[in-house]
Amino acid sequence: MTVSLKSAAESHADHRHWQSDVDCWKDDIDNWRSEHSTAIAQLQEALNQINEHGASLDEHAESVVSLERSLVHHEQNLAASLQNGSHTELDDVLNDQHVKQADLHRRQQSAHERIKKHHHTVMAHVATLKAALEAAL
Q1: How crowded is residue 111: how many other Cβ atoms within 10 Å of its Cβ?
Q2: How far is CA 16 from CA 9, 72, 116, 124, in A?
């Protein structure tokens, strides 16, 4: 490979161009450092929110267990009613319990679907972020 000789003026022009590139790169790095600091704060807040989400999952699990206990208790009351010969209509107490059980179930189902949708969305974004961070530079 042959290199053509440059004049001092051309070499000086190359150096000015290179210095301009270096100055731009340094500005980029300063901006990136600022964005990096902001990202750290945002990720810390996101981590706090993910931990809160975990606490919400624990509360939801407890709520499901409570609903299950309520369902078992209601079913036992219905079975006892059947054993006592009430094979047709529920009495007022059992009917009220059944209506309340149905309402609890509907509310739990709605809450479960909201949590499920939120959970899947958040976990997908976390996976995307993790993959982006792991990608080679």
Answers
A1: 15
A2: 10, 81, 58, 47
pLDDT in tens, 55-104: 999 999 999 999 999 999 999 988 888 887 766 677 888 889 999 999 99
Predicted structure pTM score: 0.74
Identify residue 59 by its one-letter amino acid code: E
Integer Cα distance of 50 and 121 in angstroms: 12
Alpha carbon distance 65, 73 (integer Å): 12
Domain ranges of the chain: 52-137
Nearest residue to 103 (alpha-carbon basis) of 126, 74, 60, 129: 74
- In angstroms, rounded to a whole number, what is the distance separating the alpha carbons of residues 70 and 78? 12
